[in-house]
Amino acid sequence: MNSSATTKTTAVLVALIIVVAVVAGVGGYFAGQSAGYDAGYKAGYDKGVMAGGAKAYEKGKSEGYKAGYETGYKEGLKAGKPKGPTLPDKIKIGSLMCLSGFLGPMGQKIKLGVELAVKEINRKGGIAGRPVELIVEDTATDPKTALEAFKKLVEVDGCKVVIGPMASPEVMAIGKYANERKVVVISPTATSPKITTEFPDDYIFRTVGSDALQGKALADTALKKGFTKIATLVLNNPYGIGIEEKAKEVLGDKIVLSIRYDPTKMDFRTELSQIKDAGVEAVIYVGWYEDGQVMFRQALEMGLDNIQWIAAEGVYGEPMFKVADAAEFMKRAVIGTRPIAPTGLITYKLFAESFKKEYGKAPTMYQDTAYDATMLAALAIAYAGQYDGAKIKDALQYVSQYYIGATGHKMFDKNGDQLTQFYEIWKVEKVDGKYKFVGIGRWP
Amino acid sequence: MVVVNWLQVLFNSAVTGSLYLLAAVGLTLTYGLTRFPNFAHAEFMALGAYAGYTIAEQLKLGFPYSFIAAFISSAALGAASYLLVFRPLTHRGATIIHLMVASIGLDFFVRHLIKQVWGGEQLSFRMVWPYFDVGPVRITGLWVALILSAIVMVGVMHIVLTRTRLGKAIRASANNPDLAMASGVDVEKIALVVWIVGAALAGVGGLFRAADTRLVPLIGWEILLPAFAVVILGGIGSFYGALIAAYVIGLAENFGVVFLVMFKLSTDYKFAIAFLILILTLILKPSGFGRLFGEGGKVV
Amino acid sequence: MSEPLIYVLDMAVFVGIFAILAVSLNLEYGFTGLANFGKVAFFMVGAYTSSILANMGFPYLACITVATFAAGFVGFVASLPALKLQADYLAIVTLAFGEILRFIFKNEEWIAGGVQGITVPSAITITGVPIQTMMLIQLTIVYAALAICYFIAQRVVNSPYGRTIRAIREDELAAQVLGKDVFKYKAQMFTLGSAMAGVSGSLFSQYVRFIDPYTFEPILTFTVWMMVILGGPANNLGVILGAVFVQALERGARIAKDYLLLPVDPHNLRVMIIGILIILILMYRPQGLFRESKVKTPALEVASKWKKRS
User: Fold this and answer.
1) Which DSSP string do the residues of A62-104 spell out, in sequence order?
2) Overall pTM surpassing 0.90 (yes/no)
3) C14: which chain A residues are within 8 Å (Cβ-Cβ)?
4) Is some CB atom of chain B closer than 8 A to the CB atom of C282?
5) Could you tell me which of A68, A35, A149 has the C-alpha nearest to residue A101?
6) For A241, which of C115, C208, C258 is closest by C-beta distance?
7) Is the ipTM of this complex over 0.85?
8) Residues C30-41 pLDDT 10s
9) Domain boundaries defined on chain A
10) Are residues A156 and C2, on separate chains, in Cβ contact within 8 Å?
11) CB distance from A147 to chain C under 8 Å?
12) Which DSSP symbol is given to C294?
């Protein structure tokens, strides 16, 4: 391990300790109060670092983190005292998810991440002793419906914080209304770079990195492998095009063929023939599970498994293995990138354990960012001490500095985007007759 | 310089064309006989695909049985649609626009019923098909099965239409219902048979599309407009016209991709090609290829 | 604070926007008998024209005016070849036309952002005004537009002109024999209907302030058809009530699911109900819930007065 990596690891550890302490302090909020922040947070912080955090730092082992977490949490509980009913008796958190429509299958899964967070918060006594009520609305993967559902959440239910919506166009559609009505929106999945430019410095946050980063990650991966003739094959939607444009910017005329496809049509044979005939060395691919399953199967059938495919995170996940041919193709030809937390993060382990206990299966893509988005929302409400959009927005900026969640340090920049985002480079292996994803590198 | 494996593109066109043919045959026959475009035809495809999925994947009975299930379930839906919705409407003097709108209402109903029963989540067949190279062309078992099914269907339909009393009655009813009735043909009974057969074939088409891609409630609706393009280009009610048109549109879409890539246009436009053919046909030559096979363009 | 009032106002705005579409379709289908299955295309032209102009900094009045003319013009051009066709062909052609147009907006990024969509700057900016007031202003604009469209539609159909187009609907050949230039009348109605759809599209983009190609799928056309069929073709007030009904059902289902425990997904149930209702209405009451409005002309009023006196 070189020295910069060591520094990085140390930095992560230090950050972790801070977070453990904050989580501990926040335990105080959840248990009792909001205005008791000074007492609860500081006590939790100090005690946490002293008792658990310091030990963790020395040993660098998970027991240490756990000890810090537990101690801090208990101290926080003790220190926090309720002070005045400034929060409503029941705290509503809204959520907009694509439960039907094109992203429906994915939305059904991501919803579990939000629900898990709410369950955990309520088990710990809610926010300042007040239970959290989650209201989920379906956006049908349609911006117009998303706006209508958002208005329902805001005006009928009175939500001040909304987790979602998932698709970038949906965020674009509700952004202005959210700003006008001062409602905090935290999207766990919308990755379009356009959200940053359209809505800087306002009520729109996201717990996932912008595609501008991932496009660069994919392009760099291709460069590193020394490919000089590359094709892009992307979904004809903001997700695909956002990455395609960034990749083109980096790779320039190394890209000899660009194909955009409609995810609902599914007859990709001739597109794939074109790629095969062009004699490229690599394909940069952006798709979702739904079309990725079909694309990979047809790619295997067309014999494109002797070209290196470099895929974005849309096809990272167990559902891809439901189609045997797609799984086999991924094993033979596909590597890819996906946003991840720094490796070996204890907070991710805790999240994964909790998830497994609740649903009996391991978490997949974006369930962790959805969990973090919900946790951040709860923390911000607790810290603000008032159910007020503007206050929660400021609190969110603040608490994000200290929150390390399932996907790592979730600090927002002033645009509400992730300050840092790491990507893992993965491939697929077959072990004992079962396919699985394996990390083979990191970016940057 | 774009290199193109033209033989492969030709074969791909045959696959696309066969699918469109199965999807469009029922549509053109019912259109010709009951004189309105049935938008609920999309759900005949969808139901067949879902029924086949239940048999093949949930009951694990294998693909041949799912074939039968698709055939029967879609046939039943076709019969029910005609007997419960479209025939009563015709008896009540519904206009062609009323029938079209009713078919959209029926489409909505059936699609959401399917969604309620099977859920909106994407499903896929687990079957793995063998693939092999014939010269420069890549072929899979499924594509061969699809093309063979289309050929067998064409053969059987051809024999039925030309050699049997039923076939003659169908052609007579489509050409001139009044004359057919006068000469003792029960036109409504014939129409029912055509609805059943047409829906059943659509079900098989839907099953193939599902096996080739995946299952979602919108599976039929996604290729309804291309199917309409086939119907129009082939000449409404013309079986042989549809046969040619299906492959013409298959060729146009697949070769379209090659040219779109050459001219650096978005390949997403390939589906606009079918729509463009549709519009141009109706404006320039509304009878399509129908007249090639007899007067009036209504020869089935 | 939650403001259920805003949700109600929001629904009212959408009812207004869709009511304009329903009135425009009613002119084409209800009165003239034209099966336009591509209504969404002209709505889309209005929305995009208006949005592009608004982004260039034109005042809203200019945006909506140009959007109206643009949609009307596209409607006119499209009608020239399309209207020579019989009813079912026209339906399929307009449906495909809408899809092709959507493909162009989707794939040509330079027009209006392609799949990324385009945001629309607000037409009216008054700072320091509560949102309810802003909503009321929006509402006023939309309903003023609806009132104008309704007034124009009523004037058109209750004139000798209106009698002619109804005659064309009932029997095209007879109208032709009477020396009416059937094609000209149809083209005029199609252009007028398209222009109204453009008004509606402009209002929509201005209100929602973000549009992308996914907003303009064929389902939108069919929603408007549902409104017209449910409300009663050839009855302008009826189709507006149809718009109210369809919107209320949509939003009602969303709220009802929070209070009712149904074995069926309320969204599926809602669409299934609409599907069945359409079939039942066409079967048992094809004239719609409201019958065709009688022609109201000054001559008729005089005549009915005469009738009463005697």
Assistant:
1) HHHHHHHHHHHHHHHHHH----S--S-SSEEEEEEE--SSTTH
2) no
3) 148
4) yes
5) A149
6) C115
7) yes
8) 898 899 999 999
9) 3-79, 91-208+366-412, 212-342+423-443
10) yes
11) yes
12) P
